[in-house]
Amino acid sequence: QMQRSRPQVTLYPEGARYCAHYDNYQNQTSRVLTILLYLNPWWHEGAGGELRLHHSGGSFDDIQPLHGRVLAFLCYGSQNMHEVLQCNAPRAAVTF
Predict the structure, then answer these.
(1) What stretches of the chain adopt beta strand conformation (E)?
(2) Main-chain phi, psi angles of 24, to 5 degrees
């Protein structure tokens, strides 16, 4: 059963990162979908804080946290391991 949750505002300071994880590891929460809205008008190449989405087989995609970008991915049943790479400048996002 899906449930509504409150948005989470996150501000990563310079030097911060978030290690690889699942948003709903082995269905321990009711979360089915993660939606991110990036709020980084100051972001530039080299500022870091990219979201790395891991794929089976060891490949991955790095997604730049561009201002206004919306990113959505499924997280039900341990899907879409991801991490936030080291930030070289502040990075802000709202997670729904």
Answers:
(1) 8-12, 18-21, 33-38, 51-54, 60-63, 70-74, 82-84, 91-95
(2) -145, 70
Q: Are the C-beta atoms of residues 11 and 96 closer than 8 Å to each other?
A: no
Beta-carbon-side half-sphere exposure of residue 61 (alpha carbons within 13 Å) = 8
Regions of the chain short of the pLDDT cut 50: none
pLDDT at position 93: 97
Question: Letter for the amino acid at 20?
Answer: A
CA angle, residues 60, 65, 68, in degrees to nearest 5: 130
* CA 73 and chain centroid, separation: 9
State how far the Cα of 24 lies from the Cα of 21, in Å rounded to an integer: 9
- Using only C-alpha atoms, the chain has a radius of gyration, in whole angstroms, of 13
pLDDT digits (tens, 9 = 90+) for 21-40: 988 776 666 678 899 999 99
